[in-house]
Each structure stands twice: as structure tokens, then as C-alpha cells.
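User: Hey, quick favor. My workstation is busy. Could you predict this chain's structure for me?
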Amino acid sequence: MGKSKLAPSRGNSIPRLELCGAVLATEVAEFVLEHLTIAAKIRFFVDSKVVLGYINNRCRRFYTYVANRVECIKQSTSPAQWSYVPTNLNPADCGTRGVAAENLMSSSWLVGPLFSGSAENKVPYCLVNPDENKEVRPEVTTMATNVTEKTKLGTARFSRFSSWTRLLIALSCIKHIANSFLSRENKSDCTGWHVCSNSQDVSHHRQAAVIILSEVQKEHYADEYTSLERGRQLHPSSPIGNLSPFLDEQKVMRVGGRLKFADLPHIEKHPVILPGSHHVACLLVEHVHRKVRHQGRHFTEGAVRAAGYWIVGGKRLISSVIHHCITCRKLRGSFEIQKMADLPRDRLTIAPPFSYVGVDTFGPWQVISRKTRSSQASSKRWAIIFTCLAVRAIHIKVVDELSSSAFTNALRRFIAIRGPVKEFRSDRGTNFTGAIDLLEINSMSVEQKAFRKFLNDSEIIWRFNPPHSSHFGGIWERMIGVSSRILKQMLMNVPHLTHDVLVTFMAEVCAIVNSRPITPVSSDPENPEILTPAILLTQKSGSVTYCAAEPGTLDTKDMYRQQWRQVRHLSETFWARWKKEYLPTLQKRHKWTHESESVSVGDVVLLKEKLKHRTEWPIGRVLEVFPSEDGKSTIRVVTRHR
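Assistant: No problem, here it is.
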């Protein structure tokens, strides 16, 4: 038996027509079962997966047209009876697409389907693109709120506020709204939920403060508050028992104390008791701290007591608030320091003098360059100091200008006298960085994550100290200070300084500095020798005496052999004492002895500038951090903000 209906030309979509065909199939099945009076299992097949999704749906809702027809199908059938059949095997297509007359007798419309439909459907069919289907209602999420009656306000909500003033404003507004609901004969415009300026006067703020303080006391000192309400004595172990607390007429717990007859204001004789661990106490201290213009703990503590508050553990709380105050850190915060790093290898390596050198410049001095008929023409001179990192010896060269070319010539003269250098260290002066490019020396920067490969033909390594890190070059900065003091004394009696005199003075300064002891002078009479850099540079020692041989006792070979032994003896003696006496003096850290938390990416920092007042220092954010060899972070890239 087959049945088909004529579909309207417009107004229905293909899924709707397929759904109408499914409804027609259920009607035909009911008609057949009613008239044949047989018990049989009926299977339904449809070639639309959209219709199968409608029938098997359990979680989404449809609009009226689809919902009514799906409900009609489910009243007489179950979703398990419906299965999918491909379009080319569906016999119902003959009724909708049409069949030629000569093929009608052999068509599936009269012969039956060409597939076996005995198996039940065990595959669940889901909705096809439910979010894009116009017949499916949009999914709505509903949330239920469980309202319970509470007799106490509680202080948990107070922790959401960041300032005492905002907390007072919020609670004053809520109290004003609650009064507008409770007042029956309210003739004003303040009715229902609203925000107006009437709730922001001083009286409303005082009432809000009483409510806040009372709630904090009820929650934190519950036993004490209950005992005072009932007129009982406090327990001997109460933390506020020595304050003799009492409840005033507003049910706020205050200090009883012993100053009842003192000529003081009431709020100072009987301040309000607050726990120092509560967030409200922190808000009060921050509020008072801002009123005293970010002064220290003594000022803030006095202002808190004058405002009428007795905070239990207040000293610790005030110290914590001041420690975390951003403004106080900007005004009086200490600079970030890290534990002093270990000495580099070039300061602890036995090597020929000036193999590892630190370079810096100092000056200038006015010198007479030439004389004219009526006056003298003067010019400036600077000095470049080369410091041996191992033996602490110095070598000074005078230059007529701070330029890369002048520094390059001074460097060539230094290497010609002192011999080849393995490694240079310096700050980031423009004369140094420019000379690196001219000399084509392999540059090595401590800012890089990994040092660049050395050039195969490079014999000198140049290490730049980080910017604004003069303490990295303390070994030669100290030598500059010593040399400057000696030179000042020399120039006291020189009215007209010339270039030749300055160069001579610099040579004498080098001799004086290199003759200084680098180890503590021993008081042992059996060890009168002192260890100085000059011993290694000149291979001479004033304490060593040599016996003159009689003529004819030594030939030329013996003289050369004896001289070689003397030089070797002085060198070995120096390095032996250098290891034994000098290196142990470098063991201790005289400052920066404790490790501190390293600065990380994203931290906000205050950038120090020597030429500006502290209030004008810019604020920056750390973008990148380069860890040092010992794992401690060292900032190198910072963005500046105002």
C-alpha cells in the first residue's frame, strides 16, 4: 500500500516536507493495523537524517510547526523503529519523483524495497547543525539563586574593597536604600533602588562606620562581645582582657583602661578595639597613612590612635602597610641589591703581567700647549689607565682628546711596551665602543645570552660591562681614585702645567702605585719583604742582596746562568706569595652578603637618574632578564613609563 500527497509550491522547506512524509507514514501504519487486526512489528525508513535527528532528540526544543509533528510521530511510534535508508533505495521516491508507465510494474513502489529492513535501529541519530537550524530554538541557560535568610551582615564582603572611603560610601548607600524600603510614610523621592547624594553626608558615613566596626568585633571577638552584652566577666585568657573593654551606647567595643578622668577627648581615652589581622584594620591604617602624607611608622601610629582606634598588633600592621606602600617605596625605598658574585677567572689566574687588563679614562687637566706674545694657549689632556687584573699593577697613558683614534694609538703604545693582551674589560664609553670597530677586535658583550664565537684570527677579547654598572669595574675605579690623590699633591706647586710635566708626573704616579703593598704588611722581623706589583714588573727587590764575585771566578756562561736564576727566583717567589698572601684577602665579601629575590620579567621598577630628583625618576617595566653565571638575574632591558 502506498500513499502520497501534493506539496504546496512555496512556504515549506525540504526538512519540513520530509517531516510531513514521516507523519504520513505513521498515519498509513495506524490505518493498516486498525483494519487488518494483526500484531506485527513495524519498521519505518526515511532518507532524511534531519528528520531522524528530530525524532531522536531529547535535549533541544523546536518551534511550533516541527514540535507538533514530532509529537504526533512519537505518540504512535518510538525512535528505535526509525532507520535511515539511502535515497536510491527508498521506494517512497517513486511517489514523489514519478515512474514511467512501462516501468511501473517492476518498480519498488509495487515490488517492494530491494534491501532487508528486519534489523532494528541501534545507532542514535543526533540533530544536524542544531545551532544553524532555524527550526530549533536557541539554547537558554538558566541559573537559580538560593536565597537564605541571614541575621548577620558578615565581614567577608569587606575584603572586596580597596579603601576605607569606598567601603563607607558603599555601606552608606546600601543602608539608605534599605531605609527607603522600610519607611512606610516616606514622602521624599528616595524610594526603592536608587543612588542619590543624600546618603553621602557625614552622618551617614558615621553610621556606616559604626556598623562596620561592630560587625568586625562580633566576628573576631565573638566570645568577648557576647560576655559584655550579657554583663559577664571576660575569660582570663582573652587577648584583650588587659584593656578592660566595654560596650558603648552604639554597641561598639571600646578600651576601658585607666584614663577615665584624664582631660582628653573621648575617642582618645576610649578608642575602638580592632584586630590587627582583619582587612578593615588594614584599610583604616592605609587611610590614615595617606592623611599623614606617607610619613613613617611613628607618625602613622600616632594618627591612628588620635583617630580613636586601638589596633591589636598595630605596630606590625603599620610596618607591613608602609612596607607595601608604593608611594613610600618611591620616596624612601632602598635599591635592589643581590649577593656579590664570585670573582672572574682573569683575576685569579697566574699569567704574565697585563695579560688581563681593565681600561678606563679620567681627567681632564689644563696644560699649556703654546705661548703667544700676550698670553698662553691651553688645551686639555686626559689619562687612560690600564690596570692588571691579576697583580693590580697600573700603566697610564696621556691623550689629547677623548676619541676613538686617540684611544687606539694609546692602546697600540701600551701593547708595544707591555706585550700582548689576552682580554680587555671596560665600561661602555663611546671611545671604547668606537675603537672596537676600528681595531676589528672580537667584541663580547655580557648582555648576550650566549657569547658570540671568537674569530679564528682574533687574539684579543673585549668584554663590556653592563650599562650603569660601575661596580663591575671597581678594581680600576679604585686605582683611578688612588692615582688622582697622588697627582693632586704633585700639582699643588706647579703653576704652569705642560704636557711634558704631566707625562712625567703620570710615570711617577705609576711607579708609586705599583710600589704599594697588595697584602697586609707583616710585623714579623724575619719576613721584612713586602709584596708589590713592582717586584714582578721590574724583577727587582730591595731586600734581596747579591754578592759580588771576584774577577775571574765566573765566566760569561756562569753570568748568564746566574741572571736567569735570579729572574726566575723573583718570579716564582712573587707568585708563591701571591697565592699564599694575596688571594686569601679576596675571599671575604665585605658587603652584599645575602641573597635577595631576583627581578623577573613584568616587574615594575623605579629607574634611578643621577641628574633628577627622586620624585622625577621614571617608572619602567622589565621586558627581558639575563641570568648571570651564578644564576642570579641581571636586568638589561627595561621600558620607561611616566
